[in-house]
Design brief:
Blueprint (H helix, E strand, L loop, with lengths): L8 E10 L3 E3 L3 E3 L2 E4 L5 E4 L18 E8 L9 E4 L5 E3 L9 H9 L7 H11 L3 E4 L3 E9 L6 H14 L13 E8 L8 E4 L3 H12 L4 H15 L8 E6 L6 E7 L18
Parallel strand pairs: 5-7
Antiparallel strand pairs: 1-4, 1-6, 2-3, 4-5, 6-7, 6-8, 9-13, 10-11, 11-12, 13-14
Length: 279
C-alpha cells in the first residue's frame, strides 16, 4: 500500500529512546526513535535522519514533540511503527529534567503500560505484534562487551555517501563512527517462565560516551570498560530503580535493549515503588 494513501495523523510524543545511528542504504542513517503518547502508548518513529534535522527540530530525550505521521505498512507490521513527515516535527518546551520531583513526572508517563517481564512481551508480540515496551528486571546480572567490526560494511557507507553527494546534504558525508564493541545485558525477569536473558544494548548515549572517552585519550578497551562502569555500576546500581526500554529489530523477532530508565530510589519510602520512589 502506498503510504500517501494512508491517513496522516498528528502525534504528540514524549521521546524516551534514541539508538545509535546506523548507515542504511534505504534510509541514509537509521535511528530508532521511540516514545510514549499522552496515554502511555508506545510509538516508534522512523525513518528520522536525526543529524540532518535543523537545530530547532533536534529534539532531546524526555522532550515532547508534535509530528505528522502515517502508520507503517508493508513489511513493517509492528503496531507501534509510524512514518513521520520530517518537516512537521515541532519541539514542545524543554525536556523533563531530573531535578527533585521530575523523575516522578517522567514515571507517570513511561510506566503507564509497564510490562511484567520479557516473557509477557513475547506473549503480546505473538498476539498483536507488540514490539516496544518497558520492564523492570528482577536482577541485572552483568553488562558484558566483546570486540566487533571496527568499521561499517562498505555497502553501508558507500550508499550513504552517494545519497548525500546527490542530495547536497549539510551533514558530513561520513557516517558516525562505529563502536568496535558489542554490549549485552544479562538479566532475569520476575516471571516463573524466565530462564535468563542476554540482550544487546543500542542506546545513542552509549556510543557518545565511548567516543568521548576515546577522544579524551583512553585506549579502546579502557573506553569500553568506562561504558560498562557507567551503564552497569552507576545506572544499574543498588540506589537505582532501573528499567529497560526494549524493542524488536525489523525483519527479526529478537528483542534488544534500546535504553534505560533509572530513577534514584528514595530512602524515605522503600515500600511504595510505584508512586514514591522518585528523588
Amino acid at each position: 500500500m502506498n503510504p500517501r494513501a494512508v491517513t496522516e495523523r498528528s502525534l504528540r510524543v514524549l521521546i524516551t529512546v534514541k539508538t545509535y545511528p546506523i548507515p542504511s542504504s534505504k534510509y541514509d542513517e537509521l535511528v530508532c526513535t521511540a516514545g510514549v503518547s499522552e496515554r502511555g502508548d508506545f510509538i516508534r518513529l522512523y525513518p528520522i535522519n536525526f543529524r540532518d534535522l535543523p537545530f530547532d527540530r533536534q529534539f532531546r530525550k524526555y522532550q515532547w514533540i508534535e509530528v505528522d505521521a502515517v502508520k507503517h505498512t508493508g513489511r513493517d507490521q509492528r503496531k507501534e511503527s509510524y512514518r513521520p513527515t520530517r518537516d512537521s516535527i515541532q519541539t514542545l518546551g524543554e525536556p523533563i529534567g531530573t531535578d527533585r520531583g521530575t523523575w516522578r513526572s517522567r514515571s507517570m508517563m513511561v510506566l503507564k503500560n509497564k510490562s511484567k517481564s520479557m516473557e509477557s512481551l513475547w506473549d503480546a508480540q505473538e498476539s498483536d505484534n507488540t514490539s516496544l515496551g518497558i520492564l523492570k528486571p528482577r536482577e541485572i546480572v552483568d553488562l558484558v562487551y566483546s570486540p566487533s567490526e571496527s568499521e561499517w560494511r562498505p555497502s553501508q557507507t558507500q550508499a550513504l555517501r552517494q545519497a548525500r553527494i546527490w542530495e547536497d546534504r549539510s551533514v558530513s558525508l561520513n557516517p558516525p563512527r562505529k563502536v568496535p564493541f558489542d554490549f549485552h545485558y544479562i538479566f532475569n525477569c520476575d516471571d516463573e517462565r524466565c530462564n535468563g536473558h542476554k540482550m544487546s544494548l543500542h542506546d545513542w548515549e552509549l556510543g557518545a560516551l565511548y567516543w568521548r572517552l576515546v577522544d579524551q585519550g583512553f585506549e579502546k578497551e579502557e573506553a569500553a570498560e568506562g561504558v560498562r562502569e557507567k551503564f552497569y555500576d552507576e545506572l544499574c546500581g543498588q540506589d537505582k530503580d532501573t528499567h529497560f526500554y526494549v524493542g524488536t529489530v525489523l525483519n527479526y523477532s529478537n528483542w534488544i535493549v534500546l535504553g534505560l530508565f533509572y530513577p534514584k530510589l528514595s530512602n524515605s519510602a522503600p515500600n511504595d515503588r510505584q508512586l514514591s520512589i522518585w528523588d
